[in-house]
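Researcher: Here's the sequence for the chain we discussed earlier.
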Amino acid sequence: METWIRAPRKCSSGSLSPAATGRLTFQKLVSPPVTSLQQQKVSLNQDHTKCTKQILSEKWGRGSRTVDLELEAQIEVLRDNKRKYEHVVKLAQTLANQLSQMMQTQRQLGDAFADLSLKSPELHEEFSFNADTQKLLSKNGETLLGAINFFISSVNTLVDKTIEDTMINIKQYESSRVEYDAYRTDLEELNLGPRDASTMPKMEQSQQQFQIHREKYEKMRNDVAIKLKFLEENKVKVLHNQLILFHNAIAAYYAGNQQQLEQTLKQFHIKLKMPGGDAPSWLEES
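Model: Thanks. This is the structure I predict for it:
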């Protein structure tokens, strides 16, 4: 683009020369060449404008959008499951906190019973076996807490890393869908207009951009479909193991089966610093 400005002619002293009175000269200013970075910025601005227009058009019910019904249903199920898994983790964490507080109370109660057993000869035996029971309950509570914390950690990893990684791909897919629909709409509007020498270059450029964004959208759609398939397989495997762990640990703890509780942790390779030996059942011992 060229810009013209009028500039008065000056003499060497800096004042207008007599000859310049009533006469003007012109200085031609040439804009610097457009760089590739500037072109990219212009292109990004155009993309942003088109996408914003497309989003508003969809929101107001004036525009159409491309929908893959099967894929959209899978994505919605994943979002719903993610919320539910997060709720389960939150509840499991509450359970772990409550169990930890109960264990602390059991230890304190065991110490109180043990102290009273020494100071009450007539009730020594009764205080002693209550002290032992509370200490064993506390000890096996540590084992159960280890299983619950392992469950929380594993499901958290599934939600915060594995599922979240897929959610990032879904967001990219949804962005590519908006871009594709924006350029599709733009091309459709141009096709409805007149076809002449002035509009054909613009239509050809629009067709090229439409093709580029359609290929990008289709690639992202296929990538997300594959990602969802692998995620489902991984999710089933992880949750299958963790739900068995959670059930077996809870059942063994409340059945008073210390041996089964410890065996459950060994089965899932959960290492705990276990005090004491291989006592069969803390309830049986009391």
